[in-house]
Amino acid sequence: MEASGNTEQRRKERLDRGIKVRTDSIYALMSMKEILYLLAPRLVLICGVLILPVAMPSMYWQRVVSIVCIYALLALSFDFLAHFVGLVSLGGAFFIGVGGYIAAIINTHFGLPPIVTIPAATILGAAICTILLLPCLPLRGVYFAIVTLMYPLALARIIEALDIFGGTDGIMGVASFANRWVEQYFMVIILLAFLFAMRRLVNEDLGLVFRAVKDNDQAVRASGMNVTLFKAIGVFIASAMGCLGGACLVHIYMWAGISQFALDFSILPIAATVIGGAGTLVGPILGCFILVPVSELLRAFGTLRIVFYSLILVGFIVFRSEGLMVYGQRKYHQFERWVRV
Amino acid sequence: MNAEPILDVREATKAFGGILALNRVSFKVYPGEILGVIGPNGSGKTTLVNCITGFIRMTSGKVFFKGKDITRKPAHKIADLGLTRTFQIMRPYYSLPAYKNLVIPLFSPRARRTGGWRGGGRLGDRDTVGIDILEEIGFERDSFVPYKLASSLPTGYLKRLELARCLALKPEMIICDEVFSGLSMSEIASMVPIIERLKMDGITLMMIEHRLRELFRVANRVIVLNFGEKIMEGSPEEVLADEKVKEAYFGSEEVEEVMSHA
After folding, report:
1. How confident is the model over A92-138, as pLDDT tens digits?
2. In A26-179, which residue ranges form alpha helices assigned H by DSSP?
3. Is the dihedral angle over the CA atoms A37, A41, A42, A43 positive or is it negative?
């Protein structure tokens, strides 16, 4: 990087650690050390997230944990869709809104408990989102992003104008979770389950097809596969995560309203993906665990909050544009040294 | 030939705006043969492939595959019927290792249905089947090459990967869009036997080529395109002797070279 003298130049050389190479395959089972090398990061994440609800000082911060989990589901869905299927989605608010309203309607009209409404809203919401997004799936380019951005805006206005689903007041009296511990541990466990399920999915054969659609859709067509169908499956999976988050949100707030179509739900997951590291799946979740609490802490600064928030984001983009997780993985798996060129 | 044609192209026409890229091109391909398609640059060869395999829509004309009209079918349906193609500009999945590239075609409905590759799924691991196919097409199984990322493979291997992707579908016919172009002489020399073996396995081939010498070694029949029109059809010897072909290729050293060998 720095030139000492006029001619001599140095660059950073990165090499995989020996233990990283040893743990790549079945040899990982050689000794406790290797097993621990693989398990440690995962255990840190799982245990860390599991003790969060207990470690929070007040009920207010416990509620923040639940909200973080919902944002994390959205970020996971964004990262999957953008970096493994190749569709840039700005539809976090769309998924949250659709899932939330369906859960609220099922709960208030039919009196079904959250244990039924949440799975129902997940499946039904994902199906509705996929069908609504179907027309723009055969297209390549920015169309998908634009359409996903348009739907939440349009749906909020439709609900307002037609005064359906409670209009601007929203749907009140939605049942809550049994208690706050159920609420938080439900959220945390759902989040972990989806994280590890998605990590597995992208390395399965179906996941490889998704990645192939992103890499090169023409070759997928030449392989006798319907690209639109696989994009639709990808959108279904991603919107299911979003709708699940939305359904949980209305049960936490005990209310569904047009503010669930707010663009925060679309933008924050993307910012979290930038901070956490794109294409790592766990990175965006980490990003949410940083960004959402920071935004809560910054409430003390009133309107200056947005300024600080923007500064943090810009700082990350300028100094760590690869994202925390990519940086962390590199430090964990590789060692670096300066070599002369 | 008295057999039914496997591929029957009737008056294929494609206009890009006012330019006729293909003008009423008709020909038949019979099962088990190798049909060569040659022509100078811009004569519509790749457009012809794109039209037949459904990647672009023909302005007019009809295509029949095994007696079935496939003119307006989408590309994945045509591939599903057993008519596959390679791309002139290789289209591997760069972020995946070479053998993982084959997991995608092995996941397709056709590969599952034909099941020739041990089901390509339930009965056999797709990774293993993928490496089997790669070995058949000239990747050394025990070397590191099949495990390398496609983005770091040289052109020769990428061309093979294109063919391997077609083979994974157990096709009845492959349309090769310039498999020899961009290869060194030794790479071509190792590619020719692979083509000959595909023919022996009963796969019908249609080969678009610039490398006339290698093409004429393997092809049964050749058609010549010029400015989107078919100007000649016949055996390699007949095509070489034809005045119109000489005119179309006027000044091209390759033809003169091949002719001097013939």
Report:
1. 999 999 999 999 999 999 989 999 999 999 999 999 999 999 999 98
2. 32-55, 59-80, 92-110, 114-133, 143-162
3. positive
Regarding whether B177 and B121 lie in a shared domain, the answer is no
Query: What is the C-alpha separation between A117 and A106, in angstroms, rounded?
Result: 6
Same domain, B53 and B98: no
Strand partners, B48: none
Calpha distance B55→B14 (Å, rounded)? 12
Per-residue pLDDT tens for B160-199?
999 999 998 889 999 999 888 888 888 888 888 999 999 9
**Which residues are within 8 A (CB) of A129 and not within 5 positions of it... i.e. 6 or more apart?**
A91, A94, A95, A98, A235, A236, A239, A242, A243
**H helices present in chain B, as ranges:** 45-52, 75-81, 98-101, 103-106, 109-114, 126-136, 155-168, 185-200, 212-218, 236-241, 243-248, 253-261
pTM score of the predicted model: 0.89
Q: Are residues B86 and B100 in the same domain?
A: no
Range of B135's domain? 93-152
Task: Nearest by CB to A215, from B53, B93, B165: name it.
Answer: B93
List CB contacts of B152: < 8 A, sequence separation 6 or more: none
H or E stretch including B60? strand B60-65
The total number of structural domains in chain B stands at 2
Residue type, A199: R
Q: What is the ipTM of this complex?
A: 0.86
B124 and B14 assigned to the same domain: no
How would residue A2 be classed by pLDDT, with cut points 50, 70 and 90? Answer: very low
Name the one residue in this structure whose structure tokens are 């091949």. B258
Q: Are B167 and B201 in contact (CB under 8 A)?
A: no
Hey, how many other C-beta atoms are within 10 angstroms of the C-beta on A244? 29
Tokens of B33: 């043969």
Q: What is the nearest CA distance from A25 to chain B, expressed in angstroms?
A: 14
Q: In this complex, do A222 and B87 lie within 8 Å of one another by their Cβ atoms?
A: yes
Exposure class string for A149-182: b at 16+ Cβ within 10 A, else e: bebbeebbeebeeeeebbeeebbeebbebeebee
Clarify whether residues B85 and B177 are in a common domain.
Answer: yes
Q: Residue B79 and residue A222: Cβ atoms within 8 Å?
A: yes
CATH code of B188's domain = 3.40.50.300
Do residues B80 and B100 share a domain?
no
Q: Do B104 and A212 touch (CB under 8 A)?
A: yes
